[in-house]
Specification:
With about 350 residues, this protein is an alpha/beta fold. The protein contains 12 helices and 10 strands. It has 2 domains: about 160 residues, Bordetella uptake gene, domain 1 (D-Maltodextrin-Binding Protein, domain 2, 3-Layer(aba) Sandwich), CATH 3.40.190.150; about 100 residues, Periplasmic binding protein-like II (D-Maltodextrin-Binding Protein, domain 2), CATH 3.40.190. It is globular, with a radius of gyration of 26 Å.
């Protein structure tokens, strides 16, 4: 004799709800597994090289070493910072342009080596050779000199000395086409002075020569100049911005010295080769933004005189395209010349 179970409407409803929940849980588990597998598939199963196209000790080197540990944690792979200085960043940028587009080689850079340098020399790449991952941080530029330098005491006496001695003041910069280099060009043009421009493979070597007395002044990022300012070994004549920087409130701005139209800063971002898959770029951008919103890292950047700038890949590309257009206009006007 067969037996049958009799369910009330409430029991049937409960049973169906439980079944639906079980199905939903299983679907979510499958989706979660698939997403995890997809994410893993977008990260190369090998150490990630983080190129810096300038020497150790400069602003970009500081930025790269600040984000490397967080990227390694987010991506589950070792991240190795590798400095590739030379030709105003062109050597390092060239290496990135020729790298495998799988996310295993990235670069921390400003737009200048990509947008300005090709207008000043022959390069094997253009702006189209790269994919932007996202912005990282920005920092002010300063005109700095040694504390014991006696030719001039402030920006006004610096300009007066330069006008009385054309080409006699030596000024260092981080490389041809860098924001430091462009700032020097603008200072010369707007202030009506002529300087002896010395180009280095990054701010680090330029700082060594500045402090050693081989050059008189340099344009440097606040991030790499701050330690020397705090130690008293160097002093700043001007922030290359219409507003003072709160980290060095006593340093006059370009507005203070009567040149409010003079404004140059440095913005660093993360780049990959142009044919890197969109899914990989999205994953890298997510990892970058995740670490940039970490209060601990934000405090580290603040101590390094930089402000984090999380956002989408398009934000960095928009900046690159803007600077590429400006560089093309300067080149057409004959104002971009290697020193």
């Amino acid at each position: 004799m067969s037996s049958s179970a009799v369910y009330t409407q409430s029991q049937v409803s409960t049973h169906l709800n439980r079944s639906a929940k079980d199905i939903l849980v299983r679907i979510l588990a499958v989706v979660s597994f698939a997403w995890g597998a997809l994410a893993l598939a977008q990260v190369p199963n090998k150490p990630i090289t983080l190129l810096v196209p300038f020497a150790a000790g400069g602003n970009l080197d500081i930025v790269a070493r600040l984000i490397a540990p967080g990227l390694a944690k987010q991506l589950g792979q070792a991240v190795v910072v590798q400095n590739k200085p030379g030709a105003g960043g062109v050597l390092g940028v060239t290496e990135l342009s020729r790298a495998e587009p799988d996310g295993s080689v990235l670069m921390v850079s400003t737009p200048n080596a990509i947008t300005v340098a090709p207008k000043m020399m022959k390069t094997p790449y253009t702006i189209d050779s790269f994919a932007t991952v996202g912005l990282i941080a920005s920092t002010s530029l300063l005109l700095v000199t040694r504390t014991d330098q006696s030719k001039f005491n402030d920006f006004a006496s610096f300009v007066a000395y330069a006008k009385a001695n054309p080409g006699k003041i030596s000024v260092g910069n981080a490389g041809i086409g860098t924001s430091n280099h462009l700032a020097i060009m603008q200072v010369q043009s707007i202030a009506g002075i002529e300087l002896n421009v010395i180009t280095y493979k990054g701010s680090g070597p330029a700082n060594i020569d500045l402090l050693g007395g081989q050059i008189d002044v340099m344009i440097d990022q606040l991030s790499s100049a701050l330690s020397h300012l705090k130690s008293g070994r160097s002093r700043a004549l001007m922030v290359v911005s219409p507003a003072r920087d709160p980290l060095v409130p006593d340093v006059p701005s370009t507005t203070d010295v009567g040149l409010p139209e003079l404004e140059v800063s440095t913005t660093a971002g993360l780049l990959a080769p142009s044919k890197t898959p969109a899914a990989t770029i999205a994953l890298l951008n997510s990892a970058l933004n995740q670490i940039l919103t970490d209060p601990t890292l934000q405090e580290q950047f603040a101590r390094a005189a930089s402000q984090v700038r999380p956002g989408p890949p398009a934000a960095f590309m928009t900046l690159m395209q803007k600077e590429d257009k400006q560089a093309a206009e300067l080149a057409a006007a004959g104002k971009l010349k290697s020193e």
